[in-house]
Amino acid sequence: MSERFAKKWESKREEQPFTNRVKDAVKPPGPLKPRLDFAVRRIELQVQKLDQATDRFTQRDKAIFARIVDAYTKHDTQRANVFANELAEVRKMESLIINARLALEQITLRLRTVSELGDVVSTLGPAVGVLRSVRSGLVSVFPEAENELGEIGNMLSGIMIEAGQGSGMTLNFDTVNEDAGKILTEAATVAEQRIKEKFPDLPQGMPATPQSEKTTQGF
Residue 115 region, left (φ>0) first, then alpha (ψ -120 to 50), else beta? Predict the structure, then answer.
């Protein structure tokens, strides 16, 4: 690693006055590693928000499921079908959110392992691709995350470009797309399994909710 890149990657924290560190937290310039750490913390915050959204959808799921069972036991098939269709939509949104959460978790784990000796560019490339896919997938389900994920993606793109310039590394887009695709596919598979394990099936005779559908819409 070149001395120039080493300086761009990380500076000694004690050399930075406290007021400057506050400014960096708002609009982080300077060395790449503090900026990368800041971006990771922002992603982790979005993961927490997705967890909260999942909890809300879970409570809604339970309430609708109880209504379906109640209508079914009263032989009110028409009402039960209405609730079953509503439950199908809720579970579809739950799957998207769980999928997004798992994908974001995967890229934070990867970004946390990036060190001054790591391959910064090849790690950030797939992460940016995953962020963009997750962002587009959440537009209709969790729109408040769209702007934040867009800003984080732009921040990581800037870091990636500077890291490439400082290290002389070039980005292999075929590899980047392949790695991002693997992360998204793995997240979709795990999300589908978690939905099946987490939520009960409808009473026998009721139309099944589309839990088995692939939830990679927009991803």
Answer: beta
The answer as to whether 173 is a domain residue is yes
74-118 confidence digits (pLDDT tens): 989 899 999 999 998 999 888 899 999 999 999 998 888 876 545
14-22: Cβ within 8 A, 24+ apart: none
State pLDDT tens for residues 4-50.
555 555 655 445 555 555 444 444 445 778 888 899 999 999 999 99
Contact residues for 91 (Cβ-Cβ < 8 A; gap 6+): 61, 195, 199, 209, 210, 211
Sign of torsion over alpha carbons 185, 178, 105, 56:
negative
| Domain with 28 in it | 3-198
CA dist 159 and 144 (Å) reads 24
- Judge whether 219 lies within some domain: no
Classify residue 212: in a domain, yes or no: no
- Is 206 a member of any domain? no
The three-state secondary structure class of 77 is helix
Nearest 10 degrees: Cα torsion 34, 35, 40, 45:
100
Number of domains in the chain: 1
Query: Hey, how many other C-beta atoms are within 10 angstroms of the C-beta on 218?
Result: 16
For residues 57 and 179, the answer to whether their CB atoms sit within 8 Å is no
Alpha-carbon torsion (105, 59, 89, 46), positive or negative: negative
